[in-house]
Amino acid sequence: MSATIVVGGFWGDEGKGKIIAHLAYSDKPSIIARGGVGPNAGHTVEVGGQKFGVRMIPSGFVYPDAKLLIGAGVLVNPEVFLKEVELLKVENRARVDYRCAVIEPKHIEEDRSSDHLKGKIGSTGTGCGPANRDRVMRVAKQAKDIEELRAFLADVPLEVNEALDRGEFVLVEGSQGFALSLYYGTYPYVTSKDTTASAIASDVGVGPAKVDEVVVVFKSFPTRVGSGPFPTEMPQEEAEKLGIIEYGTVTGRRRRIGYWDGKLARYSAMVNGATQVALTGIDKFDKDCYGIREWEKLTPKAKEFIEKVEDDVRAPVTLISTGPELQQIIDLRKEKL
Ligand code: GTP
Ligand code: IMP
Ligand code: MG
Q1: How close is the Cα of 48 to the center of ligand 1, in Å?
Q2: Nearest Cα to 249, choosing from 222, 214, 278, 225?
Q3: In Å, how far are 29, 47, 164, 232 from 283, measured between CA atoms?
Q4: Is 226 close to ligand 2, i.e. is its CB under 6 Å away?
Q5: Residue 334 and residue 337: Cα distance in Å, rounded?
Q6: What is the pLDDT of residues 38-53, one digit of tens each?
Q7: 163 CA distance to ligand 2 centroid (A)?
Q8: Nearest of 1, 5, 3, 2 to residue 276 by alpha carbon
């Protein structure tokens, strides 16, 4: 029995998609289960020269042998889900918990026309806030009420827990990031739900005692899209000088860029109960690290930074991502765990 949860440590877009794809290929889960808010997320996976940006289907889809389940806690936009199912050709293995709440066009309209959500908070405009509100009010539709989703319905906790009982490996995928949590983030500039590992476990219906590993993903230079506090933010010109320019996967908005925030990282690792840390974008910290796949070949400057990260988060850095492509990673789990 073994379950691993992967969550974001900062404001989302840490590169969870890539880390999950790597873990899927190396650890061969029978199920990849997606938690988190909903289609406000955009996970990027680059493999074999192809780049995918997924919003609903778990980003481990590139590994062909896993069932792809969306937990009951996640909001489903049927249109986005069905489009991704078709595009990625995962009809036979993508399933949605029958209790997922549904995002309707009226939620998207409300989100996009709201001075508070779109204007002040800088929401993604994907309808998540209004749909979660309707869920709390107990008026939202559920996946089981939608004719087009009928062929895709599942009992996700049952599938996940039965797989664990059979001794299989289950990978649980979070979305967004710690500082966007409704409870622990920079309220009110946050998303519409808690985003920490415990919430992600609840989203897919796996009890805390069944989770073996919590991998918190941090990026070397944190980013934030939308409004709100960002203590280590750098001016745009400075980011450009460092060659760091990023755009959001869902909204295309330019991401704000900051320096490593050790204080936030420590708190985030604590609340998430990190057992391991994945650090992405080390190639942005030191260009000479691009594409490297062995620890020994990293530059002294990068090694020193990674050691500082370990001191900050008080957990081992087991995965070091050196570029966007799936193969560009150093996996130290055998050495460090
Ligand atoms: P959310 O669920 O929306 O929070 O997304 P995410 O954590 O899956 O991250 P997202 O894919 O939105 O953004 C990460 C970006 O960084 C993508 O464009 C990735 O291709 C890219 N990326 C991931 N790892 C690395 C890395 O090590 N180096 C570089 N240069 N880019 C990376
Ligand atoms: P909402 O989740 O669309 O309501 O947006 C609320 C806040 O969370 C805004 O600042 C968004 O930019 C941010 N946000 C939501 N999902 C993501 C994500 O997947 N990556 C990065 N930021 C996100
Ligand atoms: Mg993203």
Answers
A1: 16
A2: 225
A3: 28, 18, 36, 19
A4: yes
A5: 6
A6: 999 999 999 989 999 9
A7: 32
A8: 5
Q: What is the pLDDT of residues 230-272, one digit of tens each?
A: 999 999 999 999 999 999 988 899 999 999 999 999 999 999 9
pLDDT of residue 251: 85
Cβ of 38 below 6 Å from ligand 2? no
Q: Which atom of ligand 1 is nearest to the CA of 282?
A: 27
Q: What pLDDT does 1 receive?
A: 63
Query: Does residue 13 have an active-site annotation?
Result: yes
Q: Tell me, in angstroms, the distance from the centre of ligand 1 to residue 217's CA.
A: 10
Question: What CATH code is carried by the domain that includes residue 41?
Answer: 3.40.440.10
Domain count, the chain: 1
Q: Which atom of ligand 1 is nearest to the CA of 41?
A: 3
DSSP category for residue 119:
I
Report residues of the chain scoring pLDDT below 50. none
Residue 332's domain comprises 3-336
- Nearest residue to 13 (alpha-carbon basis) of 230, 318, 306: 230
Q: pLDDT, tens digit, for every residue of 107-117?
A: 999 999 999 99
- DSSP H stretches of helix in 154-287: 156-165, 197-204, 236-241, 262-272, 282-285
